[in-house]
Design a protein that fits this description.
By secondary structure, the protein is of the alpha/beta class. The strands form two sheets. The chain has a seven-stranded mixed beta sheet, with helices on both faces. Strands 1-11-12-10-9 form a five-stranded mixed beta sheet. α7 links the parallel β3 and β4. The radius of gyration is 24 Å and the shape is globular. Bound molecules: pyridoxal-5'-phosphate (PLP). Pyridoxal-5'-phosphate (PLP) binds next to α6. The site of pyridoxal-5'-phosphate has 15 residues, from α6.
């Protein structure tokens, strides 16, 4: 495809995207396909001859759209907001158009320096410590893995340059809670600590946040048994209930044991743009690293995850490689992001964040975040004041965790009388909401019983959409008018 053909097809594609975005509210939220249905509509072999663009676009419409769950739908209340602001979509397109190769500073100086600048803009907007430096990773899962690798090397005095973990005399331990995202235990295991050395610290039964006294006891017990505490991962906004681990109380304990503190603020990081939500990050200045996904609630299209570190020199020492073909005269004067993570080749991810921030502006983003927080509070009020319904966790952010608890299955005091019946009821009414196509919500296990997460924050979701959802939930659970 040459530039002129690209121009014509590109205009058509942009028109298609604009029309598609405008009609999302008319589409069912949940993808309407069964397993294998999309693949079954595609030829088994790659084309030998070039196809006209119109045919590709037609398949995008007829095969791909029905096979996509409409995350940008005003009725999307599932997993977490994964907003893809149109400004950031343009930035992503510009990044692809440039076709830049991010392997060293020299291979694309702008790729590195725009990333440094936008990471700094966001650090400042979130009022994270001024000395921290940021890098864009593909996801918070990678951010956590990188942090735990850096923690391992700090605890072992760069054991990677000797016999690695296999040569350590004492096992290194990592601390988090059962409510942390699954990427946290995964990172601990992949970084070589081993499942046996991963501790799930008890949480407060009401807030689901890590209990500092339980962390202190776990640390004492491990040290007494000859183990070496290496890292604690504190969640600021857990996936299940948006619980906030008390970083300010965790940091002094970690200091005592010279442990690394990684803060997983994948979803909640965006709320730090709001001065009234800055409490979420109390104590964060004592942490070593923090991951925050602009590709969630902030609205920068996937994949765009920030990892901030307090000591970039340490990270670079752990991650750096210097093959001869990548060396240059400016090494030492510039940032080489290849040494801040695992992959060598990097996309120009910073452009979508740069476009997003410039085309929307921080004030518009803040107003949207405030709208979502207010909508969550409104829904929580409706739920808690309606008989038979319960809000199951503090509404710290934009997620409401709720359950319909019919009489006979749950007692008047809230005791579950028949857990199987309650689980079957919950899963059944959630299924009927999702099958309706009008909204999508996510069931999740909370302390062993199914609950429902309503995660508010899709870019087009307004109060009227949350009101509609609340009616739909009551209808589906058979409680309307009771
Ligand atoms: C709290 C939390 N941490 C980490 C992750 C993983 O993020 P990513 O998909 O960017 O790896 C998620 C994703 O939902 C999350 O909610």
């Amino acid at each position: 495809m040459g530039p002129e053909e690209f121009r014509a097809a590109g205009h058509e594609l942009i028109d298609w995207i604009a029309d598609y975005r405008a009609r999302i509210p008319q589409l069912p939220v949940q993808a309407q396909v069964g397993p294998g249905e999309v693949a079954g509509k595609l030829p088994g072999r790659a084309p030998e001859e070039a196809e006209p663009f119109g045919r590709v676009l037609a398949d995008l419409e007829s095969v791909v759209v029905p096979g996509v769950t409409q995350i940008q739908h005003p009725g999307f209340f599932g997993w977490f907001p994964s907003n893809a602001s149109l400004g950031s979509v343009l930035g992503d397109l510009a990044a692809s158009g440039l076709g830049a190769l991010g392997i060293t500073w020299q291979s694309a100086p702008a790729l590195t320096e725009v990333e440094e600048v936008v990471a700094e803009w966001l650090r400042e907007l979130a009022r994270l410590p001024a000395s921290w430096k940021g890098v864009i990773q593909d996801g918070a899962s990678s951010g956590c893995l990188v942090a735990l690798l850096a923690a391992r090397e700090r605890a072992t005095g760069y054991g990677e340059a000797r016999g690695g973990l296999q040569a350590e005399s004492a096992p290194l331990t990592v601390y988090t809670t059962q409510h942390a995202h699954s990427s946290v235990p995964k990172a601990a295991v992949l970084a070589g600590y081993g499942q046996d050395n991963l501790r799930f610290v008890d949480v407060d039964p009401v807030t689901y946040a890590m209990r500092p006294d339980a962390l202190a006891s776990a640390l004492e017990a491990d040290v007494a048994a000859g183990r070496r505490p290496a890292a604690v991962v504190a969640s600021v906004g857990t996936t299940g209930t948006t619980a906030v681990d008390p970083v300010a109380q965790i940091v002094p304990l970690a200091r005592q044991y010279r442990m690394w503190v990684h803060v997983d603020a994948a979803m909640a990081g965006s709320a730090l743009l709001l001065p009234e939500m800055r409490w979420l990050a109390d104590g964060v200045e004592g942490a070593d690293s923090l991951a925050w996904n602009p590709h969630k609630w902030l609205g920068t299209v996937l994949d765009c995850s920030l990892l901030y570190v307090a000591d970039p020199d340490h990270l670079v020492r752990v991650m750096s490689t210097s093959p001869s073909y990548l060396r240059s005269a400016v090494d030492g004067q510039v940032t080489q992001y290849k040494d801040w993570g695992i992959p060598l080749g990097r996309r120009f991810r910073a452009l979508k964040l740069w476009f997003h921030l410039r085309l929307d502006g921080a004030e518009v983003i803040r107003a949207r975040l405030r709208r979502d927080l207010a909508n969550a509070r409104w829904l929580a009020e409706q739920v808690s004041s309606t008989p038979g319904w319960r809000v199951l966790a503090p509404v710290n952010l934009q997620t409401v965790v709720l359950r319909h608890e019919p009489a006979g299955v749950v007692s008047g005091t809230g005791a579950v009388l028949d857990a199987d019946a309650l689980n079957a009821h919950t899963l059944s009414w959630v299924d009927s909401v999702n099958a309706s196509g009008a909204a999508l919500i996510t069931p999740s296990l909370l302390e062993g019983t199914w609950s429902v997460r309503v995660s508010i924050g899709a870019e087009p979701t307004e109060r009227r959409d949350v009101e509609k959802l609340w009616s739909l939930l009551q209808q589906a659970a058979g409680s309307l008018g009771t």
